[in-house]
Structure formats: structure tokens, C-alpha cells
């Protein structure tokens, strides 16, 4: 469990929140309660994808991420605009560590602007900073 001081930093930094295992877990459970957990799951999948070294593994993971989060009617489809979706699909023709960067940045911005303020106001978070 993080210290109240540590948890307080999450108000101003989604990055710090997502990098902290406890913060990520609590944010995901909050998102689950709001039915928007796919955003955090997508972000985590992209972080994992960027660490992949083998081109074969990378192509495999890229396909899985695409099918799970990007394609229309995907089981956990994230909310990205058509342009971002098109760029991402084009990038997947030749998967690289940056293939999902644009989509990941969009989802990060969405969580930062939308979900983080609601998380910070939640009872759960208020308990953490006491």
C-alpha cells in the first residue's frame, strides 16, 4: 500500500499512478466500476509490447492488441478516432516498437483528462490519502 504522500502525487501525474503497481491496480478497479477498464488494459498491453525484442513475438503481440482493442467491434475496443485507427493499422503492416504510440497517447490523454479526475474524487482514492 502506498504512503498517503505517494498517493497524493497521483492527482497530478497519471504517469506516476500507472507506474506504481498498487496505483495501477486501484485505478483499474476504479475503471472497472465505470466500465472503462479497457483503456488501462490497452495502455499496459502497449507498454509490454514496446519491451518486446523478437520481431516474431512483436508481430504476434501486435495482432493480439489489434484484435482485442483496436479493430471495430473488438471485445475491449478503445475509443480512438478514425485517423488514429488508420495510422495504427498502417503501422501494423510492419510492426515496430512505436506501432501503437499514437493510439496509446490518445488513450493516455483520455484517461488523464477524463478518468483521473473522477478517480481522484472517488471514495477509494480519498481513503488512500488519509
UniProtKB/TrEMBL annotation:
<dbReference type="InterPro" id="IPR036305">
    <property type="entry name" value="RGS_sf"/>
</dbReference>
<dbReference type="Pfam" id="PF00615">
    <property type="entry name" value="RGS"/>
</dbReference>
<comment type="function">
    <text>Inhibits signal transduction by increasing the GTPase activity of G protein alpha subunits thereby driving them into their inactive GDP-bound form. Binds to G(i)-alpha and G(o)-alpha, but not to G(s)-alpha.</text>
</comment>
<dbReference type="GO" id="GO:0016020">
    <property type="term" value="C:membrane"/>
</dbReference>
<keyword id="KW-0734">Signal transduction inhibitor</keyword>
<dbReference type="GO" id="GO:0009968">
    <property type="term" value="P:negative regulation of signal transduction"/>
</dbReference>
<protein>
    <recommendedName>
        <fullName>Regulator of G-protein signaling 5</fullName>
    </recommendedName>
</protein>
<dbReference type="InterPro" id="IPR016137">
    <property type="entry name" value="RGS"/>
</dbReference>
<dbReference type="InterPro" id="IPR044926">
    <property type="entry name" value="RGS_subdomain_2"/>
</dbReference>
<keyword id="KW-0963">Cytoplasm</keyword>
<dbReference type="InterPro" id="IPR024066">
    <property type="entry name" value="RGS_subdom1/3"/>
</dbReference>
<dbReference type="GO" id="GO:0005737">
    <property type="term" value="C:cytoplasm"/>
</dbReference>
<dbReference type="InterPro" id="IPR034956">
    <property type="entry name" value="RGS_RGS5"/>
</dbReference>
<keyword id="KW-0472">Membrane</keyword>
<feature type="domain" description="RGS">
    <location>
        <begin position="13"/>
        <end position="129"/>
    </location>
</feature>
